[in-house]
Amino acid sequence: NAGVMQNPRHLVRRRGQEARLRCSPMKGHSHVYWYRQLPEEGLKFMVYLQKENIIDESGMPKERFSAEFPKEGPSILRIQQVVRGDSAAYFCASSRTGTPSTDTQYFGPGTRLTVL
Amino acid sequence: KNEVEQSPQNLTAQEGEFITINCSYSVGISALHWLQQHPGGGIVSLFMLSSGKKKHGRLIATINIQEKHSSLHITASHPRDSAVYICAVRGTDKLIFGTGTRLQVFP
Hints:
The complex is a heterodimer. By secondary structure, chain A is an all-beta fold. Chain A has no helices and eleven strands.
């Protein structure tokens, strides 16, 4: 059973370009979470999705950022018109049921985004 | 003040020492997680607790819900335990993370 997969592992973009980060959850998991880790800072929640639905996007910046988790295929975190401050490690996690008290989240290896 | 506080921020130890990392939180939670982030950046979930105590190999995690406090213990520490240990709490949906404890174990 493969773990959570993220690609690309490293992504370099110039200011103003778009970045697309992909996350394939573990088999049987329908809940996906995106987190961001800025350089020398802790992890911060961005968005929680279940298949075809955004459950909680309270951690997403208001502009340029969007996320989706379609019925088929991976979850996508999309950053439009990237700026240097978007440089960070973006982690995806998945879980089976989403039940807060019993459901373990499994993390992917992360995508390291560098904006030049 | 952060909702999740960890101490110490940095910790060095000699191989074989007993290690304790502490986590205090100020919000209501449904579960508390301990995570390990390797030097390469990957994150591994070590424990999820909602009460009591859990043990896995040389790692022990405890939680006191009334005091809003959890501890992670490492017995007989080894250089391969060197990593950042992160405490995270979950209310309803999202995890709220502490800033992590950087542990270095020297041979």
